[in-house]
Amino acid sequence: MSLVLVNVSVAACTPFPALLFEERVIALAHWRSAGLRGTSTMAEFLDNWASNADILKALRAAEIMRKLFAEHGAEVSDFNLHEPVAPRQVYCTIGNYRSQLMQAALDADDGPQGPQAATRRDAALAAIESRSRDGAPYVCLKGSASVSGPYDPLSIEAQDSTLDWEAEIGVVIGHPASHVEPAHALEYIAGYCVVNDITLRDRVFRRELPTFGTDWLQSKSRRGWLPTGPWLVPAWEIEDPSELRPWLRLNGELMQDGVASDMIFGITEQIAYLSTQVSLQPGDLICTGTPAGIGSHYGRYLRVGDVVEAGVFGLGHQRVICTSLRF
């Protein structure tokens, strides 16, 4: 049976971690006697992932689990679902899907049908292959306070005229990781989730400081700019992460539809690279890049009243409504 982790609450209570199976949930605290640790909050639970993972695997295999959920599980619809992680650090890998980089190259200058389009396409292909062969992931930090729930409203202020979406696969670290070899990187993953890396395009580069480079604080880190969840799917439930498919719909229209195998630097390469720069800790969240179809391609950015649905097949999907109110 496939079990996923969720972070839930009832009324105004503090969110607590639970297991979800076939639309029914049971709090992880139910299995404290089996040895689960840190069951009061998701952050504490992930801090104890090294011991908790083996117990979760045993629960997954237990024949009694189906009966337990059927008889004692509560309907998930009776709960509020919150972000399934509370990371100390959030890392975002930039420009990591071939499709997105090719689309941006073709959209530039005289456009995809212009006389220079073929030249730009060839140059982009050459740059991508060179970077894949000799380069390293480009990773920025995003404020952890930007993490929000999968159904929380997204506040859009009047000046946010270029607020863009980026559906991505989120990777949650389960074990401390330092100088990890790519071949062993999957061993450090607790699980996967859906993220939408909201980005204010016109603040990526500061007009008043054109030589200072990118400003990820202003462009990515405001409260609510990383809807996350609804599920945290344990790593062992995903047979091949390269087959995961992120997608996004805006007001019901499909805008993004990608596949992880299109990444320039795969998930294992990203973890390996990051572990040479920082010491990854349990609960840390890696946003692994976005496929083609972001708002800047369409010339259409988020507006008040928009409904944004982002998902990854096998990891669930979120639904966020854009509002003018700040929560």
TrEMBL record:
<protein>
    <submittedName>
        <fullName>FAA hydrolase family protein</fullName>
    </submittedName>
</protein>
<dbReference type="InterPro" id="IPR051121">
    <property type="entry name" value="FAH"/>
</dbReference>
<keyword id="KW-0479">Metal-binding</keyword>
<feature type="domain" description="Fumarylacetoacetase-like C-terminal">
    <location>
        <begin position="129"/>
        <end position="318"/>
    </location>
</feature>
<keyword id="KW-0378">Hydrolase</keyword>
<dbReference type="GO" id="GO:0016787">
    <property type="term" value="F:hydrolase activity"/>
</dbReference>
<dbReference type="GO" id="GO:0044281">
    <property type="term" value="P:small molecule metabolic process"/>
</dbReference>
<dbReference type="InterPro" id="IPR036663">
    <property type="entry name" value="Fumarylacetoacetase_C_sf"/>
</dbReference>
<dbReference type="GO" id="GO:0046872">
    <property type="term" value="F:metal ion binding"/>
</dbReference>
<dbReference type="InterPro" id="IPR011234">
    <property type="entry name" value="Fumarylacetoacetase-like_C"/>
</dbReference>
<comment type="similarity">
    <text>Belongs to the FAH family.</text>
</comment>
<dbReference type="Pfam" id="PF01557">
    <property type="entry name" value="FAA_hydrolase"/>
</dbReference>
